[in-house]
């Protein structure tokens, strides 16, 4: 099913004009300066702003064609919308706000609420089910609004600045959930955003609007397949060479080492941190290896087991040591290398030619098979996982592989 939009929408002396086509699986980022017409385009597609000229058609259904006298109201369009201001119903609980989407499509109250509870579990909002919108923070309201939008089974999804004005921790979680749910939905998505991370991690096409003029690009701006869906960050234990201190709590540039390591992966990536739980800037899942202190392979196994995202053998999994504050550039190189090859994994190699098994990227099925080949994960070195594995070795001459095992390492990082 495809969407064809030939748009001319007049508002006083101002006009939005342009055309584009989209098919299932397209996630189109609508970009441009403030006041250019981005939100107006979504309103036109939703039926809130009628066309002056042109035609909007989804499959065989014409939604708007002034020349033919055709105009379908929003309620008669296969569309779901998340507005900038959330627009939750103030008199309904969070549960009933979510259930409203299904109720509008004819489902029973019981069935709608059951489905709404499942949605709240996925979005980690269960504890707010009985609250009303004015009892939530702004970020919580925004998550509820996004979840309600995606709860409606519609072909066209319109998202107006979904991650705007969220704090850092909630933004990463919202982006990860959007990436997962939009991938499963296989609909047609238009996403207005000023955030380049939204464009990079969620969209595969763009429409640029400037001065009311639309310019659509059919080219992909990102390949979601090669963005890691999961990162396992190993953060257990203390360092004898650092005087027995909790080295991941040591600050570099005013932030703990662990937060720097977590920043190495895209915001849309689920992060599982294996180690003693502690505050982090970003929302993560926590896990512990069995037994505690059982080593890196036991930690990686625990991280995979704790992951919330659905398992897929081709899913990319990043493995990162929690004391590598500059791993981002290296991980990007690993992604490029694995995407360009048929290898099972990619491993970083430092400037001295030493392989770094705790800065690596795996195809999940291959990683799980490598762990199963170990008689017992406890006490096994991370390098042992790469035996009998087709590995792409990526030489890194920058700071990506720097870790902090001793005071001299910390001094180098701080410099």
Summed up:
The protein is of the alpha/beta class and about 425 residues long.
Which characteristics define this entry?
single chain; elongated; 415 residues; 25% strand; Spore Coat Polysaccharide Biosynthesis Protein SpsA, Chain A; 2 domains; Rossmann fold
Describe the structure.
The chain has helices at residues 38-46, 94-104, 109-122, 138-151, 168-185, 196-202, 257-262, 296-306, 327-339, 364-372, 407-414, and strands at residues 2-11, 14-23, 27-31, 53-58, 61-65, 70-71, 79-82, 156-160, 188-192, 205-210, 213-217, 230-234, 251-252, 255-256, 270-274, 285-287, 316-321, 345-349, 355-363, 391-395. The chain is an alpha/beta fold and 415 residues long. The protein has two domains: 2-222, Rossmann fold, CATH 3.40.50.300; 226-414, Spore Coat Polysaccharide Biosynthesis Protein SpsA, Chain A (Alpha-Beta Complex). It has a seven-stranded mixed β-sheet with strand order 16-15-12-17-19-18-20, sandwiched between helices. Strands 7-8-9-3-10-11 form a six-stranded mixed β-sheet, sandwiched between helices. A five-stranded antiparallel β-sheet has the order 2-1-4-5-6, with helices on one face.
